[in-house]
Structure formats: C-alpha cells, structure tokens
Amino acid sequence: MISIILPYPKDGTPIVGGPQDSFSGARVTDVRAAVDICHKATLGRIPLSLIGYSMGGIIAANMVAKYGWELRGRLHSCVSISGGISLWRRVDNPVSRELWQPMLAFEVKQRVHGPMVNRTGFSPSDPKWYDRPTDLYELDTLIPAAVHGYDDVIDYYHDMSACSEKYSNGGANIAIPTLLIHSRDDPIIHVEAGAVLPPTASKYLFSLITDNGGHVGWPQGWLPWKTGFKWVSETAIQFAETVALNWDLLDDAH
C-alpha cells in the first residue's frame, strides 16, 4: 500500500505566476494530479491511500468529494485528520478565533501570504494587514477569498468543504471510502465543521469523533512528545489497510 501524505502548507513551496496561482484551500487539482501520477507509476497494482492533516485533511476530503466516481480504480481510501467538511459552520467559535487563530494567522502571514504578496505585488484591501493582529477568518477574507474571486469568505469556505451543497452536492458524490478523525475539543476547527456528517453525505463517508485529542494531537503515554501521533497514525493506516483488503466488496454502482 502507498500513502500520499498532505500536511499543512509549508513555506518554500516553489510557486510561480500571479496571485491567482497562489495558495487556495479550495484547489484540489494538485492532489488529483498526485493521485494520477502514483496510479500510473504503480500501474494501478498497489492500493493507494490519501491521508491529510489539518488543511491537508480539508483538501483531501474535498478532492474525493469534487471528483467522486472518477477516482474509482485510482484511489482506494482517504483519511482526513483534524480537517473539515463544513467549514462555513461555527466560524464564530470564540476559542478558535480569539485564542488560537491569531497565532496561526501570524505563521501563515510569514510563510504563505507574505511571500506571495511580495512576489506578485497583490494589494490587500487593508494596507496594514501584515502588521495588524488578525485571526484566520479575517486573513482568509483579505487574501485567498479576494485573490481567487469569491463573493466573500463564506463562499470560499463552501468551496473548501466536502459537504457543501453549494459546490460539492452535500458530499453525496464521494465514492472512495473516506474517514474523518476529529476531536470534540479541537481548538482550531469546531467538531460541527470538522466531522459531523450531514444527511446528504455519501455512504462512503465515515466519522470517528473522540472526546479528547486537540488539533492533530491525541498524545499518548508518559512521553507524549514521542508518541503523540502514534494512535492517530495507526488508526489511519488500519482504515486504509481494511479498505484495501476488502476492496472487492464495494458496490460499483453509481
């Protein structure tokens, strides 16, 4: 089995072109291309799993929702860890916006949006956007939602979401077994936005919600800094292996 791992976007990514070519959490074509490359390289003989963490999990779930049955025979399973399928929900979560998001926004400014603005000359509507403390909601409004032509930031969040009825048919088109792993105490993405399944969701979308675990956490044992990812990583691999071993049992009907 081969796993494609999608972490949160890192700095140093070789991006060229104008602002429209910059990072967008709603872009899924890059991941689809990676799946096709791996499928071609293995001649389709090795089970392929897509595993995403945080923003990577959002993009992974959104990709299987957007492409639906086109992925059958190419991708075997998908796991979204601390991602999100309904990101327009609970955007007013005070724990996230007032405490955690400003710190994340600072990192994203430094590593992602700041270099893009310097490289392309794009001018955000707030000239003090870089120096003024902001949360991710404000930053997404100023940069990616504006750059990529969305009506507003909520429209952008809908396009990022695997279960948006506006852009993804409520998740009904998902044809690849997909597992969402989320914690109720996630301080970044509220569980209602992250892993609560709507009635429109496909039968191939599953959700595993724990009481504790934080955001991409689930620390275990006396030395959590050594085993913090052990449980969630093993859970993702076990799901992928289970699907691969039982692939012939899946319904091929649309």
From TrEMBL:
Keywords: Hydrolase. Residues 28-194 form the Serine aminopeptidase S33 domain. InterPro entries: AB_hydrolase_4_sf (IPR050960), AB_hydrolase_fold (IPR029058), Hydrolase_4 (IPR022742). One of its GO terms (molecular function) is monoacylglycerol lipase activity. It holds the Pfam family Hydrolase_4. The keyword Lyase does not apply. SUPFAM superfamilies: alpha/beta-Hydrolases. Gene3D superfamilies: alpha/beta hydrolase. The keyword Hydrolase applies. Belongs to the AB hydrolase superfamily. AB hydrolase 4 family. This is Abhydrolase domain-containing protein, putative. It comes from Perkinsus marinus (strain ATCC 50983 / TXsc).
